[in-house]
């Protein structure tokens, strides 16, 4: 198997088929809804909160609310009461089963549920998928995180409607260092490996450092990418604002960090400071324009045309040209 990551791959252009990049359509369908960009901010406490999720839904973007210190039932009621879709995260503990029971008892059906645990290739996830499918059969279930084809096959067979791929490539992740496991450093080829067997959408999660990495993820099989660090440093980001030497930063910490957990137990995440870089809406517009450019370089008009391009690997033993035959 060939091993590579975002920084040692480049996609190869094909003859342009549009007169303006504005003709390129960046939208993607997930479940019954179409979203304007194949990007979702990470379901982390320093990345999204209720007001950001509401704004994203109202403006045509997908969102996944985090599951920490949150009343999920109230959140679903509030979002649907405001006329937008509800997309929540769940773990696999008793409290998460209680949430499903309460939702079902009150006739509340979130449009999306993401089962989000560190090691998603587990019977605990199989059981939660089964429970969701029994209690809330209309809900679109995303499950993860995983990093191998075997895991993607299992999650799909257990009933997941989409899988989330990425064990440890995140910017505040220390899983690789603490456990010796993961897809950190080769996330893009792990995605390619998983996509070969996937029959349902994959959300590539973690490791996106530049907007061009979105197109690279789509090329290697992602329907969508989940991004934390690039979204954590906005004026409206929920992390605390910190001033260092007259410059403003936002804190960004891992969901498995002691900052999120409130205790130092099974810590696999750290805290960093992201420089503040303006408004979230401006970043999303710039991302959309950049993905439109990517589609145009791919010689296409629609997002999935990016899948048709050849690529080169740069440096190392694997360097070379990779042509689609
Ligand atoms: N994408 C990634 O690489 C990673 C992401 N995270 C994020 O951090 C957050 C917290 O994650 P998590 O700790 O799973 O959430 P929880 O604390 O909700 O744990 C979920 C359940 O899974 C169990 N569990 C977690 N990791 C393992 C493992 N390696 N082997 C066996 N059982 C396990 C936990 O038990 P117990 O705690 O008793 O073991 C618990 O019962 C999530 O949002 C997750 O996505 C965390 C690490 C890696
Ligand atoms: N190993 C850990 N991974 C984590 C933790 N908290 C979040 N995450 C994952 O990172 C991505 C975001 O990655 P980024 O490169 O875009 O910043 C997020 O969606 C989670 O999957 C953690 O504490 N440990």
From TrEMBL:
NADP(+) binds at residues 202-225. It comes from the Bacteria. It is an enzyme of class 1 (oxidoreductase). Residues 5-308 form the IMP dehydrogenase/GMP reductase domain. It catalyses: IMP + NH4(+) + NADP(+) = GMP + NADPH + 2 H(+). The keyword Cell cycle does not apply. Its EC number is 1.7.1.7. Keywords: NADP, Oxidoreductase. CDD domains: IMPDH. GO terms for molecular function: GMP reductase activity; oxidoreductase activity, acting on the CH-OH group of donors, NAD or NADP as acceptor. GO terms for cellular component: cytosol; GMP reductase complex. InterPro entries: Aldolase_TIM, GMP_reductase, GuaC_type_2, IMP_DH/GMP_Rdtase_CS, IMP_DH_GMPRt. The active site is at 173 (thioimidate intermediate). One of its GO terms (biological process) is purine nucleotide metabolic process. Belongs to the IMPDH/GMPR family. GuaC type 2 subfamily. PANTHER family: GMP REDUCTASE. Catalyzes the irreversible NADPH-dependent deamination of GMP to IMP. It functions in the conversion of nucleobase, nucleoside and nucleotide derivatives of G to A nucleotides, and in maintaining the intracellular balance of A and G nucleotides. This is GMP reductase. The lineage of its organism: Bacteria, Pseudomonadati, Pseudomonadota, Betaproteobacteria, Burkholderiales.
């Amino acid at each position: 198997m060939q091993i590579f990551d975002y920084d040692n791959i480049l996609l190869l252009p094909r003859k342009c088929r549009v007169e303006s990049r504005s003709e390129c359509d960046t939208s993607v369908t997930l479940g019954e809804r179409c979203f304007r960009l194949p990007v979702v901010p990470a379901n982390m406490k320093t990345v999204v909160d209720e007001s950001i999720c509401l704004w994203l839904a109202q403006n045509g973007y997908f969102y996944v609310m985090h599951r920490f210190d949150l009343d999920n039932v109230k959140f679903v009621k509030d979002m649907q009461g405001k006329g937008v879709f509800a997309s929540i995260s769940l773990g696999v503990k008793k409290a998460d089963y209680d949430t499903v029971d309460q939702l079902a008892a009150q006739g509340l059906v979130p449009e999306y549920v993401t089962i989000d645990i560190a090691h998603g290739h587990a019977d605990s996830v199989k059981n939660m998928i089964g429970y969701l499918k029994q209690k809330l059969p209309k809900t679109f279930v995303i499950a993860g995180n995983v990093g191998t084809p075997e895991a993607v096959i299992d999650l799909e067979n257990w009933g997941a409607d989409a899988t989330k791929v990425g064990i440890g490539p995140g910017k505040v992740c220390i899983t690789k260092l603490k456990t010796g496991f993961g897809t950190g450093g080769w996330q893009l080829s792990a995605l390619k490996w998983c996509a070969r067997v996937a029959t349902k959408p994959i959300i590539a999660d973690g490791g996106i450092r530049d907007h061009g990495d979105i197109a690279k993820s789509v090329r290697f099989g992602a329907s969508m990418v989940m991004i934390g660090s690039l979204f954590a440093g906005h004026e409206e980001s929920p992390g605390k604002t910190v001033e260092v030497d007259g410059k403003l930063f936002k804190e960004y910490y891992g969901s498995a960090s002691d900052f999120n957990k409130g205790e130092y137990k099974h810590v696999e995440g750290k805290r960093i400071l992201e420089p503040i870089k303006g408004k979230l809406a401006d970043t999303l517009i710039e991302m959309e324009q950049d993905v439109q450019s990517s589609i145009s370089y791919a010689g296409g008009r629609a997002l999935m045309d990016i899948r048709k391009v050849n690529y080169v690997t740069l440096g190392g033993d694997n360097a070379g040209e990779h042509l689609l035959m």
